[in-house]
Structure formats: C-alpha cells, structure tokens
Specification:
The structure holds three protein chains of three kinds. Chain A is mostly helical. Chain B starts with a helix and ends in a 9-residue tail after the last helix. Chain B contains twelve helices and two strands, in the order ααααββαααααααα. In chain B, helix 1 packs across helix 6, helix 1 runs antiparallel to helix 8 and helix 2 crosses helix 8. Chain B has one domain: ABC transporter involved in vitamin B12 uptake, BtuC (Orthogonal Bundle). Chain B is mainly α. Chain B is globular, with a radius of gyration of 19 Å. In chain B, a hairpin with a 2-residue loop joins strand 1 and strand 2. The chains are: A mainly alpha, B mainly alpha, C alpha/beta. Chains in contact: A-B, A-C, B-C. Chains A and B meet through helix 7, helix 13 and helix 15 of A and helix 4, helix 10 and helix 12 of B.
Chain lengths: 346, 287, 390
C-alpha cells in the first residue's frame, strides 16, 4: 500500500507507519459482514471463499514475503483437512479443539519439510514442493484404509460449536466460523509482516546473498515462516472439513495447489490482501460463470486471467496500487489508502 | 528375468522419448528467455487435434499428418507469442504463469467446444501396429517407431545446435543473453524462432502421444506436470539434459511399476526429488 | 434447540430463494461434472436427460419440469455439497439428481438426508451411497453387482486360474473384491493380483507380469478414459492369445472410443455390463437412433443412467400426482419397474437400489465395425454388497 507522504526516517518508523490501519482496510473488513445481510443464500459460498482466502494468505506469507514459490502448498491444507476429519471420525467432534489439533499437525509437517525447503531456491525449490505435494497425494490415495481413498473420508460429524451453533444447510455458522478464523490469522500475519522479522523476510526474498553478508540468518527465518504458513493452511483445511463434513483427495491434490497459486497471483503477491481479494474475485467469477454455462466456464475465467495480467501487472492489487500512485489517483483515492489519516505526521 | 528387464527398459525408453519430444521445447525457451510458458502443453494438444482432424475428417494417413501437426502447433504458437507473450518477457515470472495459465484455460474450453470432451481415437496404419518377436521377447512396433523417430529428431536438433549459425546464436543466448545482444545477435528474433520450433516439437509429441496416452481437452493440464518434471531435472536450456532426464524418468517409472508395484507411483516423484536435491540446477543445468 | 438466528436464517433463505415457485413447476437440481477431466461422463448423462425430456415433453402430472445445472468440476465433495445445498436453498430445487463421482454423491446424499429431498444417483456406482440417505435411488449400476456376476460366470465357463489387475483406488478395489468373491465362491483360484496407479499410462509392465504367471483368465478393472485402449493394445502387443486366455473386465474396458482406438487388438475381450448401445431390442434401437439424431454420437452407460434417472423422476411424479415431497416420491418409486433401453429394470423396494440384467459380452466384428455382442446374461441382479463383506 502506498504512503502519501515522504518516507519516514528509520526502519522502526517505517514499520510503524506500515502497521497503521488504513481506511480502505476497515472498509474491506466491514464489507465481509455484508453477506449476512445482503445475500444470506450465498453464505455457504462465502464460507468457502473465506477458507480459500485464508489458504491464499498463508501462501502469500511464504511466496509474497519470503519468495518461496510453492506448487505443493495444498499438502498442508489437505493434511489439516484430513486430521480434522479423522479426529471427528474417531469420536471427538468438538470443532475448536479439532481445529487447533489440525493446525498443529499441519504445522508439524511443515516444520519437518522446512528443513529441506530452506536449502533450495529457484526452480529446484518449486519442483521439490511440487514433488512433495504429489507424494502426499499418492500416499493419501494408497492409505485408503485411513483416508477413504478416492471415495473420500466417511463418518465426519461435527458437534455444534459452543454447543449451540450447528453447521447446517444455511451456512451462518460456517461463515461466521471461517470469517473469525480468517480475521484472527490476518491479524497475526499483519503483526508478523510489520515486525523486524517480516522485514528480514523481505530481505531474504530480495537478495538472500546480501542478507547473509550482513550477518542475517536466513534459514531459521525461512523455516519459521514456512511452519507458520503450514499451520494456517492446515487451519483453513480443517475449517473446510468441519463446515462441510466432507474430506476427499481433492483437498490435497495438485489442482488445489495450482488453483491457490493462481488465486494469489491474481490478487497480487506480497500485499497480504492479495490472497483475500484474489479468492473473492476468482471464486465469485467461477461461481457466476459456471452458473451461466457449466460446460465452458473455463473460457471466461481464462480471459479474466489474461486481461488481469495484461492490464493490471503484479495482480489486481498491484495494478490498482499503481493506478492509485498516479497524480489523479492520489487526488481521488489518496485518503482511502494513506496511513496518515489520523493526522499524525509519519 | 533378463527378458523382463529388457522389456521394461525398452518400454521405459519409448515412454521417455515421448516425454522428451513434449519437453524439449519448454526447456529451450525457459533456458533462453526465462519465459515461463505453462501453455506449452496446449501446443502439444493442438498438434494432437490437428492429427485427429486430418485423419478422421479429411482421411490423411497418419504419417502425413505429423509434419502438419508440427507446423500447425508452431504457427499457432507464433500467433500467441507475437500478440501476448512477447509483452511479458520483462514481466515477473508470476505474471507469466498467470497469463499462460489463462491461455491454457481458454484452450481447454475451446477444444471442448469444437471437438467435444470425448477421447479422440486414432487408428494407426497397420504397419505401425502389433509387435515383433525377437527370440523370447516381444517389442511393440509403435514403440520402436517412437524411439527411432525421437532419436532422429534429437540428432537433428543437436546437429542444428552444433553445426548451424542459428544454433550457435541460440547457444550464445542461453549462455549469456546480455553478452549475446552486445555482440549484435538478434536475441529476440532467435527466440521467436526457437519458441516456434519448440512448440512445433510439442505439437509433434502430442500427435505421437495420442496412441499411447489418449487425447481429450484436459491434455493441456494433465501432462504439464510431467513436462515440468523432465525440464527441471534435465536442466534448463539443455537438450542433452532433457534427453537424459526424460529417459531416466521414463525408465524409472516403468521399472517402478514392474518391480515394485506397491510404491510404483511414488517412485517417479522420489526420483525427481532426489535428483533435484543432488543437482538443483538439473543434470546438465547451468546456473 | 436452534437459536433464533437459525429461524431468521430460514426465513431469509425462503424469501431470497429466487423464482419462488410458480404453482406448477418442479425443479430438479442436477449436480455433476460438466468441466474438467470428468466432463465427458457428465455431458453424456446430461444428454440422456435432455433426450428423455425431448421425447416425453417437459410436463408431468400437470407440473413443468425445470432442470437447474450445477458444475462440480471433478472430485470435489465440498463443492458438490455446497452446490446441492445452494440449489435447494437458493434456487428452490425440489429434488437432486446427477452425481457422477462417488465422493460427490456421498456429499449430495448428506444434503438429501438433511433437507429430506428426493435424490436420483444417475451414475456413481459405489454401493454404500444408497445407505447415506433414505431418499436416494440409483439408476446406474453398482461395481459389486456387475463384477461378482462376472466372477461367477467365469468359473461356470471353464476359467480356473485368474490374475487380477485393477486400478488402485476405491472402485478398482471393489471390482477386485467382487470378482474374486464371485470367482472363489464358485471354486476358482486367484493366482496373482496387482493394482496399478490411477494415473498410469503404460500397461506393458503389468500385463507382462500377468503373462508370466500363465493364468487361463485375466481380470481387469479400468475406469473410462484413455486407459482401456492402452490396456487392449498392451495385451495384443504382448501376444496374449485371447482364445486360450479369457481377458475379462467391467464394461468400460470395451467402451466405444476404446474399441475405436484399439482396433482389432480388442477382438475377443469379454466384459460384463448393464448397457451397450449395441443391445438388440426395439426400445434401445429407437433410443440409439434418437440419440444420434440429437447429439451425433452413440449413447453409453452414462447416457442411459441419465435417461432412466429422468424416467424415475417422471414416473414417481406421475404416481404422486405431482407431489414433489421426498417421502412421497420415495414411496412411489419403490418397486417400480420399466423397460429401459438397457433391458428390464426395477428399483428395489427394500434398498432403493437398481435391479437389472447384467450382460456378458464379447468384442466381435459386425459389418466391419467392432462392437460388444451380448452372448450371455444374468437377470434380476441385486447389489450383493453389505458392510464388512469379504
């Protein structure tokens, strides 16, 4: 997000300025409450958008901020999804504890994998993440005594949240649950990004050699952010399982990894909101296009992607922020995006 | 024992040759211009559909359709390259991914619309069917054809690279683009031609693949993964690397399925990960 | 014990459900794959639906039938569940239909049970689906029924030692278990078995292993797509003599496009299935002719699943006088029989599953074209599966 005033003095002030809430952010979060009032019949879709947004945000943490392009991020989503499903199947249907356990399990997997991840870069890294995702997919298919294989996991039944809110046909519980989880994880990510740790991640992304030259350790940082991203992806997967009471191989297959990458790039990487915007736009577009023509909706979606790349470089948010950074843009929208709206000088 | 080992080697080699034809174009374009063209398998698919159309609707013999598949895929790729792709050579790799994925989606919907989603059958001429018996072993005729054909193509490619001026320009551009430009080589022009050639080869691979793996609109996405694996393991910009990687992967896939069917499907991914961990730039990669 | 908010939600949902019912419309929500890798079966099912409605009009018992199509895009039970919910809550559907893939069908059945809506499974062939909701009927087939029949038939026709080769996922395992049970219960011996990875493209290694063990029968389970043709060719290329070794499988092995690709390599393959476009009956001949006229291709088992699914809906509505309530429709459909293009079929009054004839066919050349010729059959086959069956 652009600053409308001259750059502040030192790194801490920079972080402070970045960390202030901009008006447009408040607009965004208030808007997420609209579906309850305006479009209650779309709440189930909204809950799945929230899940995808959380998943995309977790990918942004490693891709947009640490520069790790992962083609296998669905491994953590699916691992969290299956963990939550299995916990419920084995008799414990309480959602919140299941969610925490699933996040923990995914985080553990991410932590173990991060040791390999931190040692590679460029194409090798991309392909290793791809390979890992594909391996997990095969494993899940083979272990069909555990996962249900191609038929999906049977027997997932969730108890009502706080003993009162049932996950039902109408989606109120599902959307509230997903939205709150998304918001909390967003706050956590925002804190992380606007901390010295976050700054060092961006340094790693920009120029890892120089980071080492100035004595900044890169591998532990990479491992940390990768683990955190894995936890969040696992949480997203668990929410999907719990709110739909289904899990299948589709939650960790290559298609899911590829889709979330497309969604994140569409929204714009490295801006934290990119994943959220990308999820909203992509899933709503897909829902509408496939409603109009269930057979050939790939066509308008493909055109949408092509147009975004040609006219909005660096994703929707990237293109939009470029437009806002112009003279006219600042006049019209500067008040929305500036961080000095409280009147304090940066 | 030896019979089955030879049989596995032979089949793996044939499958690897198919992968080679499908992947070599992407390796060269990635190595030369760093342009992430995820629509590479779309051109392969186009080649396949050209062959199917010519054979089933116009009545051409199979072998005659192959050059047209090559030309058709190359021609369409030039259109895409000149209208959209060349604008993104300086863009971020993520943007290139998004654009080319968009192209893939559009192509899937378009082929589903034009050709329907059913499997496209291809009826090979009789001299390419059946098998040959050498002693106790049987070799599929089509596979022999695939191997011979791919070897000829590889020889031609390597010959062109080593012995022609154009080949030298490509090698220079892959090695050090800036230097090549500085020496007055028209890198953009060379790249456009290399792109067309690579896509044409993919189209050829797609046409040859129909008999082995079938053809339907999802081809463009399904084989992308395998092609990416071959290209990454072989090393960007290296024809020899792509050849070795394709062979390795084809054979280990076959061997895995024959000798260890329980973990057969894991083997190809384990091989890829191990190879990349050992040699992150690919077997013959440069960086 | 629902809090007030859920009551408000129901009210809001009812109010926002678009197209509040014209008095005489029954809406059918069709959820299946129209795009992606599994698009072709979905489209064939849809063609079956369209043809039935063209032949029989779009009105039943005074009600107009409206089809609402939703694309689940492949294996995606979360999406299928959401679409099933939305089509009921948002679009006001009175019943659900379609469901080409098992995970999606299971998710749809959940919604059917919760919302108490009639559901027609037009394809998904896994036995357990029918138990997930008391409002589900199936108009396709089950893997267990077809393959157990084949196993028993194999022994009765002289096969004693069989090697089984199946795809390594749910339906493949079911096929293996069903065939083995039918075959072994009759007295046969399974000399070896293997499971190939789902994405496998080259079968020579697997067929070679089968050949090594010298069985007098090879049983194969393969899903539709490019693989049947590859298997057929591998069998021919490795020189397996089909007069000495019976190569058997479920119908997909010799689907029309597979036969076109295989060519003469497919001659002699034996399959068990509930439908082929070559079935010699007047009803089917008309069905195939009309289908070709409308869609320029032959129908397959997906088409007939959709076609008979619509028949089930029309017949049930006829019997209830247009009442689309789940209980009423299920009560009406139980025990219903009719002559389908596939042959006689019935909805089992106890299990709500399909009871039909399983045909044993061999690939032969008729008028220069390769077709499945039915030469034996087993009638009134019920799904034999029960939980825990070995």
């Amino acid at each position: 997000m652009a600053l409308s005033a001259p750059a502040p003095a030192g790194p801490l002030q920079y972080l402070e300025a970045q960390a202030r809430w901009r008006p447009i952010e408040l607009v965004f979060w208030l808007a997420t409450l609209l579906p309850f009032v305006l479009t209650p019949s779309y709440l189930v879709l909204a809950s799945q958008i929230a899940v995808t947004a959380l998943f995309a945000m977790s990918l942004d943490l490693i891709l947009g901020y640490a520069g790790i392009v992962s083609l296998g991020h669905a491994a953590f989503f699916g691992f969290g999804a299956y963990t939550a499903g299995l916990i419920s199947k084995w008799g414990w249907g309480e959602p919140l504890t299941g969610l925490v356990l699933a996040g923990f399990a995914a985080g553990l997997l991410g932590y173990l994998f991060s040791f390999i991840i931190a040692r590679f870069r460029h194409l090798a890294l991309i392909m290793i993440t791809l390979g890992f995702g594909l391996l997990l997919e095969e494993a899940a298919n083979s272990a069909n005594w555990l996962t249900g294989g191609a038929d999906g996991l049977q027997g997932v039944h969730m108890w009502p949240l706080f003993n009162t809110f049932q996950f039902d046909l109408y989606g109120y519980t599902a959307y509230s649950y997903a939205l709150i989880a998304l918001f909390l994880c967003f706050l956590l990510s925002r804190r992380l990004i606007n901390s010295p740790f976050g700054l060092s991640l961006r340094g790693i992304r920009e120029n890892i050699v120089r980071m080492r030259a100035i004595g900044a350790e890169s591998r532990p940082h990479i491992r940390t952010i990768f683990t955190i991203a894995a936890v969040m992806a696992g949480v997203a997967g668990a929410i999907l399982t719990q709110s739909t009471e289904t899990v299948s191989l589709g939650s960790l297959d290559f298609q899911r990894s590829a889709d979330i990458l497309v969604i994140l790039i569409l929204g714009g990487t490295g801006r934290l909101y990119g994943g959220l915007i990308g999820a909203v736009i992509y899933l709503i577009a897909r829902d509408q296009f496939s409603g109009i023509n269930p057979q050939y909706w790939y066509f308008p979606i493909g055109i949408l992607l092509i147009l975004v790349v040609l006219f909005l470089p660096n994703g929707i948010l990237g293109g939009l922020s470029e437009m806002v950074n112009t003279e006219r843009g600042q006049r019209w929208f500067g008040w929305l995006t500036s961080s000095s709206w409280r009147g304090k000088s940066p | 024992m030896i019979v089955s080992a030879v049989s596995v080697l032979f089949d793996g080699f044939a499958y690897g040759m198919l992968l080679f034809l499908l992947s070599v174009g992407l390796s060269v374009t990635l190595g030369m211009m760093n342009f992430v063209n995820l629509a590479h398998c779309t051109f392969a698919m186009i080649g396949g559909y050209v062959t199917v159309t010519l054979m089933n609707h116009v009545g051409w013999p199979f072998l005659a359709t192959l050059p047209i598949a090559f030309i058709g895929a190359a021609a369409i790729s030039v259109v895409f390259e000149r209208t959209m792709f060349h604008r993104l050579y300086r863009a971020s790799e993520l943007d290139q991914c998004l654009l080319t994925i968009g192209v893939v989606f559009v192509s899937i919907a378009a082929t589903a619309y034009i050709f329907s989603t059913s499997q496209q059958p291809v009826s090979l001429p009789n001299y390419l069917r059946g098998s040959i018996n050498v002693g106790p072993m049987t070799f599929g005729v089509y596979r022999i054809f695939l191997i011979v054909f791919a070897l000829i193509v590889s020889a031609a490619l390597i010959g062109a690279l080593e012995f022609t001026r154009f080949g030298a320009q490509i090698r220079a551009a892959v090695d050090n683009q800036r230097m090549a430009r500085g020496l007055g080589i028209n890198v953009d022009g060379a790249f456009a031609i290399a792109f067309a050639l690579g896509s044409g080869l993919a189209g050829l691979g797609g046409a040859l693949a129909i008999d082995v793996v079938g053809l339907d609109p999802s081809f463009a996405l399904v084989y992308l993964v395998y092609v990416l694996i071959v290209v990454a393991v072989g090393g960007l910009g290296s024809i020899g690397g792509t050849f070795v990687a394709a062979m390795l992967l084809g054979i280990s896939d076959m061997a895995g399925k024959y000798y260890f069917p329980a973990i057969g499907s894991f083997l190809i991914y384990l091989v890829m990960i191990s190879l990349l961990m050992w040699r992150p730039s690919g077997i013959f990669g440069r960086r | 014990m629902r809090p007030a908010i859920t009551a408000l939600a129901s009210l809001a949902a009812l109010l926002t459900a678009t197209g509040a019912h014209a008095q005489g419309t029954v809406k059918v929500g069709v959820v299946m794959s129209f795009s992606g890798q599994f698009a072709d079966p979905g489209i064939q099912i849809d063609n079956g639906i369209k043809l039935y409605m063209k032949q029989n009009g779009d009105t039943v018992a005074g009600k107009k039938i409206e089809i609402i199509r939703k694309d689940s895009g492949g294996i995606a039970p979360d999406v299928a569940k959401r679409l099933s919910q939305e089509v009921i809550v948002r679009d006001g559907a009175d019943m659900l239909a379609g469901y080409d893939l098992t995970p999606n069908a299971l998710a749809g059945a959940d919604v059917s049970a919760q919302a108490k809506k009639f559901m027609v499974d037009m394809n998904a062939a896994t036995s357990v689906i029918i138990t997930k909701s008391p409002y589900v009927v199936r108009t396709s087939f089950t893997v267990w029924a077809v393959n157990e029949v084949l196993g028993t038939w194999a022994y009765k026709n002289g096969v004693r030692k069989v090697y089984t080769l199946v795809a390594d996922f749910g339906p493949g395992h079911d096929g293996e278990a069903a065939f083995s049970k039918g075959f072994k219960d009759a007295g046969g011996e399974i000399v070896g078995s293997a499971r190939y990875p789902v994405a496998n493209l080259d079968f020579s290694a697997f067929i070679q292993r089968a050949k090594d063990l010298n069985p007098d029968g090879i049983y194969i389970w393969v899903p539709g797509g490019p693989q049947p043709a590859a298997i057929g060719k591998a069998i021919a290329e490795l020189g397996i003599d089909k007069t000495k070794v019976k190569v058997m499988g479920q119908g997909e092995l010799t689907q029309e496009d597979a036969l076109r690709s295989m060519g003469d390599a497919g001659l002699g393959l034996i399959t068990a299935f509930h439908y082929d476009y070559n079935h010699q009956s007047d009803v089917n001949k008309k069905f195939v002719a009309d289908y070709n006229a409308e869609f320029k291709r032959n129908p397959d088992m997906f088409s007939v699943g959709g076609y008979d699914g619509m028949h089930a809906i029309y017949a049930a509505l006829q019997k209830t006088g247009g009442n689309a309530d789940g209980e009423a429709l299920i009560g009406a459909i139980k025990g219903m029989q009719w002559e389908s293009p596939r042959g006689p079929m019935m909805i089992d009054p106890q299990t709500r599953d399909v009871i039909e004839t399983v045909y044993i066919r061999r690939v032969e050349k008729v008028d220069g074209k390769l077709v499945n010729v039915e030469f034996d059959k087993v009638e009134n086959v019920k799904d034999p599966w029960k939980p825990g069956i070995q």
